[in-house]
Write a structure and sequence with these properties.
The protein has 388 residues and is of the alpha/beta class. The chain folds into two domains: 11-179, Rossmann fold (3-Layer(aba) Sandwich); 184-384, Dehydroquinate synthase-like - alpha domain (Dehydroquinate synthase-like, alpha domain, Up-down Bundle), CATH 1.20.1090.10. The protein has helices spanning 21-28, 39-43, 46-51, 72-85, 96-108, 184-203, 209-231, 236-256, 260-272, 276-291, 296-307, 318-332, 349-357, 360-363, 372-384, and strands at residues 11-13, 32-36, 59-63, 89-94, 134-138, 150-155, 158-163, 171-174. It has a six-stranded parallel beta sheet, with helices on both faces. The two termini are 35 Å apart.
Length: 388
């Protein structure tokens, strides 16, 4: 099988690599720098911790108009600001929303038009120029945004993306020290987000031997460390393993793609403002249960990698064990296991199904074709909290 693989130009991964930031800024020639981050990261000192190696040779401005699941107007505002103030380097510090906005602003700053002109579903323009140099620094272990070419935005009734290879970071700096103070709730949601990326990449119709190997290792690391990081945020080894796993899952899903879980999760985030990681988490067991006939062997391997269970009965249906493990993992991490817990009502399920059907780019990667009725059935099972 032939496969085309794309990876970031340069990544630093591991404890203490944040000290590399100043060297990388010098290499990229940044003299007027915009740091796109979240206000709470400024307030609790994580942003200053990330930037502490920078010397005084560059002018640095902090931009905090970032919200979870960012709507289009937030991206348009940032783009206008970057163009108006003529920054020459963009640094993203934070979770997926901050990194997505930073990547998007950096690239489109040197392309014509507005953000809406480049949306996947409705845009009419193609990215022509690489844009400003950009460095992405994640402060959670989950989104993988630092290694992908996708920026996700919320629209009326759905989500859409801007995607182009130019959105990949020039430099990714993944230092688990920046995740040590992440609270348990966010550790859980972002951790399952990373797990979802790895699993969906693994079962994607676009997977390859290379992406499978990366995804398998990410799943193994998450199985070994997520509960530990959730229960003890100061567990340095667990945090390092989760940051590495998140990075690897990002590489896997960037090259192989994600599928049905994300397609169904997007409407939950858009309509009901569920955090993206939680949207993925609550749906992951139900989608995997529904499609397991199309990927039994791989789900069996997910179970083995995730649990390291060496005592399994070879006659046992391991794909079903995988689904059950994912369901119980949510419980252990105190993530809701049905849609009712989020205030979603049965009358909303048709609307959610209509919205999910718009995500054709994602649905096309599922190993089992998902039509309207299939998606409705998955939402219904997730609503009832029952594996059908």
């Amino acid at each position: 099988m032939q496969s085309k693989l794309i990876f970031p130009e340069l990544s630093h991964v591991g404890l203490g690599v944040i000290d590399k930031l100043n060297d990388e800024v010098k290499k990229l020639g940044g003299s007027k720098i915009l740091v796109v981050t979240e206000k709470n990261l400024v307030d609790i000192g994580i942003c200053s911790q990330a930037l502490q190696s920078l010397d005084s040779a560059s002018a640095i401005e902090i931009y905090t108009d970032v919200v979870p699941e960012p709507p289009l107007h937030i991206a348009e505002k940032l783009l206008g600001y970057i163009r108006r103030e003529k920054f020459d380097l963009i640094i993203g510090v934070g979770g997926g929303s901050a990194l997505d906005l930073a990547k998007l602003g950096a690239v489109l700053a040197q392309n014509e038009g507005e953000v809406k002109d480049y949306l996947n579903l409705t845009g009419t323009k193609q990215v022509q120029h690489k844009g400003l140099p950009k460095i992405m620094i994640p402060t959670t272990a989950g989104t993988g945004s630092e290694v992908t070419d996708i920026a996700v935005l919320s629209l009326e009734g759905t989500k859409d993306v801007v995607t182009h290879p130019y959105l990949i970071s020039d430099v990714a700096i993944v230092d688990p020290v920046l995740t040590m103070s992440v609270p348990p709730k966010i550790t859980a949601a972002t951790g399952i987000d990373a797990l979802t990326h790895a699993i969906e990449a693994y079962i994607s119709v676009n997977s390859s031997a290379v992406t499978d190997g990366i995804a398998e290792k990410a799943i193994e690391l998450i199985g070994a460390s997520l509960e530990r990081a959730f229960n003890n945020g100061s567990d340095e080894e667990a945090r390092e393993q989760m940051s590495t796993a998140s990075y690897m899952a990002g590489l896997a899903f960037y090259n192989a793609g994600v599928g049905g879980v994300h397609a169904l999760a997007y409407p939950l985030g858009n309509r009901f403002k569920l955090p993206h990681g939680e949207s993925n988490a609550v749906l992951l067991p139900y989608v995997m249960n529904y499609i397991q006939e199309g990927c039994k062997e791989k789900l069996a391997n997910v179970y083995l990698k995730l649990t390291q269970d060496v005592s399994v009965n070879k006659n046992e249906e391991l794909s079903t064990s995988c689904v059950q493990t994912l369901f119980h993992l949510n419980k252990k991490l105190k993530i809701p296991t049905d849609l009712k817990e989020y205030g979603i009502e049965q009358r909303h399920l048709e609307m959610l199904t209509d919205d999910a059907m718009k995500q054709k780019r994602l649905l096309a990667r599922s190993p089992v074709k998902l039509e309207w009725k299939d998606i409705f059935n998955i939402y219904s099972a997730a609503y009832e909290g029952k594996m059908s």
